[in-house]
Amino acid sequence: MSNRTKIIILTVLSVLFVSIYLFAGLEGNWTYILNRRATRIIAIVVTGAVIGISTIIFQTITNNRLLTPSLIGLDSLYQLIQTFIIFFYGSTSLSATDQTINFFISVSLMILFALILFQLLFKKGNNVYYLLLMGLIFGTFFQSLSSFMQVLIDPNEFMVVQNRMFASFNNVQTDLLYVSLILLAITFIYLMTYYKYLDVLSLGKEHAINLGVDYNAIVSRLMIVVAILVSIATALVGPIMFLGILVVNVAYEMFKTFKHSVLLSGTVLISIVALVGGQLVVDRIFGFSTTLSVIINLIGGIYFLYLILKENRTW
Amino acid sequence: MVEIKEVAKAYGDSVVVDHVSMHIPKGKITSFIGPNGAGKSTLLSIVSRLIAKDHGEVLIDDEEVSTANNKELAKKLSILKQSNHINVRLTVRQLVSFGRFPYSQGKLNEFDEKMVDSALAYMELGEMQHKFLDQLSGGQKQRAHIAMVIAQDTDYILLDEPLNNLDMKHSVQIMKVLRRLVDDLGKTVIIVLHDVNFASVYSDQIVALKEGKVVKQGPTKEIINNGVLKEVYDMDIKIQDIDQCRICLYFS
């Protein structure tokens, strides 16, 4: 099967899942239902695209297929921000309940953190692995700080915090969605100018420099793009990057190419299929009794075991 | 012409390249020789802008490499390092096509394809161009990488121990290709070599380095003699002329 056919099949599958999600069992006040479903499906499609694209770029920069952008520590920072707000201001405060304020606080703090981190590191000779190490340390620090605060707060407040720790598409606000769409569109347009370098960057630093890529400048800009993408997606639906490593590896396995034109579109489609399909299962089969993360992690885990076992046999 | 002026590089307290100055002529093969840790590879990486230097200047056709436009420099100078492991799975042709990136920015036109074809033919890789790199032997892989450098079509070609892990046949084959690049196409080749005999037989100029400093630089004949080699390697090396080649006997 050629890569073109695979892309077509994935497109058909995504369109199919999206229409099932939108139109199945539509009765009663259908404009209201359709409106709610459309908001949710746009949020799913957008975050799916963001997860796929940011993970691919991140792995291309680091030349490593096992890393995810969550290593920079943005997920943990998001958890810390949420815990912090509830710890100091309570779950009934404006910044905790008003999603718009919460969104802007989270996005700006995450991007600010990423910029400071990159600024510190790119001054000191720009080593991507050093960046990852610092990100990991900060991430762990943020996590410990959040769990410290979570232990201290009132159990009822803790329930609110815990709810925020899981990605959810069920209560995404429409106006926030539009704001994110605009922000993401601007980021994507910016990304387009660097798109042609991605294939070369996957050869590694020395080859990239040899082929005339302004390595330090381009890698730092791509890192900032990744940070912005991850921040917006996380602030919109919660920590979601777990999906990245899974869909990206499915894409590598499925397309067996280095060409980012194929990889990027393939990954976006696979994450849409995975997310919409998973959400269908959560809604229709489990009746909202579980979260999407659980389903995806279960299926993802099984798929990884399959991959490992299959590799094992060929050795 | 490559002009190196007072170049220095240190990692912490250990000085790897110690205020080296030299002039490398155009249209010749210049070899860097010297014992392990002499700073040969580091110097080559500095010249090719892969590593930043602490001090000094490197001028290529009167232009400083660290401030030159990267894209334009990639059309003038190419570098092949000793370990060029690539994480992605590529065919030989795809790898060689990357050599055209400085010109095409990823969108290959007819002329680029022609250059790729001729680079493949030059390295006799035409038949295996659709094989994946991980299916090739070490020598074939090295040839594919050199084909990529040829496709890049630069005036200056820098190679860091290209004969590493290659058997005699493939080593000779690669040295002959480099010789042809210089003689037929007028390229300038700068190469780090471990084996003095390959340096002696194939290069026009030799730079002998030791502990980050240039011991002596000059035409091959002047360097391959008992006195200079003793100073560089701390070994008494007997030298004999065989078929007009100066061969060093360093085995006993």
Automatic annotation (TrEMBL), chain A:
Cellular compartment(s): Cell membrane
Main location: membrane
Record InterPro entries: ABC_BtuC-like, ABC_transptr_permease_BtuC
Residues annotated as transmembrane: 6-26, 38-61, 67-89, 101-122, 128-153, 174-195, 222-250, 262-282, 288-309
One cellular-component annotation, GO: plasma membrane
Keywords linked to the UniProt accession: Cell membrane, Membrane, Transmembrane, Transmembrane helix, Transport
Pfam families membership: FecCD
Domain of life: Bacteria
Membrane topology listed for this record: Multi-pass membrane protein
PANTHER family: FERRIC ENTEROBACTIN TRANSPORT SYSTEM PERMEASE PROTEIN, PETROBACTIN IMPORT SYSTEM PERMEASE PROTEIN YCLO
Family that this chain belongs to: Belongs to the binding-protein-dependent transport system permease family. FecCD subfamily.
Protein's name in the database: Iron complex transport system permease protein
UniProtKB/TrEMBL annotation, chain B:
Predominant subcellular localization, coarse grouping: membrane
Domain ABC transporter, chain residue ranges per copy: 2-236
Any single biological process term in GO: iron ion transport
Pfam families found in the cross-reference section: ABC_tran
Entry's localization field: Cell membrane
Molecular-function GO terms, alphabetical: ATP binding; ATP hydrolysis activity
Domain of life per record: Bacteria
One GO CC term, this protein: plasma membrane
Membrane topology summary: Peripheral membrane protein
Key word ATP-binding present: yes
PROSITE patterns xref list: ABC_TRANSPORTER_2 (PS50893)
Keywords, ordered alphabetically: ATP-binding, Cell membrane, Ion transport, Iron, Iron transport, Membrane, Nucleotide-binding, Transport
SMART domains the record matches: AAA (SM00382)
UniProt protein name: Iron complex transport system ATP-binding protein
